Input
Amino acid sequence: MKDRENIGQTVTTVVVALAVAVLIVLGIVLSDSFLSQVQMDTMKVILAVCIVSILYCFITGEIVKNYSQMDKLWSILPVIYSWIIAVRSGMNLRIVIYALIVTAWGIRLTINFARKGAYSIRFWEGVEDYRWSIVHASPVFKSKIAWSCFNLFFISTYQNLLVLAICFPALASMESQLPIGIWDIVSFVLALAFLTLETVADEYQWRFHSKKKELLAKEGDLSKIAKPYDLGFNTTGPWGYMRHPNYLGEQGIWMSLYLVCIGAGVTSCGIFHWSMTGPLLLILLFLASSNLAEKISQEKYPLYREYISTVYKYIPVRRFNSRS
Output
């Protein structure tokens, strides 16, 4: 009960902090001094799509009690936003390449989520992300009103705004007439490298848990199945070197794509630009998400604490202070 209460309090704190941050960013972006008329018009279009998505996620989640509506749209909306920006930029080559990479990312993530049973012919149905039920069980969200507010402000609104914000580098660079340069090449190569890492990591994760599920169906208990499946959590492939290679890949893709702003010549002080805020907020979200996932894993699997003591979260180097 105490762990669940801590989870609820942590989630609430993160939600408030992130919500304030994204509102500040939106206020800055929508001010006349930050966007040209073309960018402002484009922003209005993608913001309209975002608002429709917010309403859909909240209303549908409340009606069908499946709170993974935004999870299903997470891999789709950035593709839509990127191509809207690309088209309205006059098919600027830099933004078209950006949109193509985002499309490859979206296809990969959609397929990975689909094979977990998340999608259905009835789009509002499908398997809900297991973490929502755990967060919902926290005493902090015991009240129906409290959970509905969480659904409205975090699951539906904040996550939609975040997905919009991670595409801001494309919006910021859409009018640049500079040719493709070294920073663009670095951006695109790094993004593809992180996409490859994420793809490989998720494939290892899928194979591990599919095999574990198959063995459990036969034996009925983790202690009776073969190594390394008896641990319950994955330590194969990239997971043997870092605890969240898929999260590293996801964050790395969007931070890499931010570099197009440098290539487009829209940054100030060398590398900084307001559009960096979206990728940075994504990192904060994954920090909270990884902490929640690890709390859950420690409760489920006795040896997960030892795994934490021997393997870093994102650095592929083994620790030497492992527990005996």
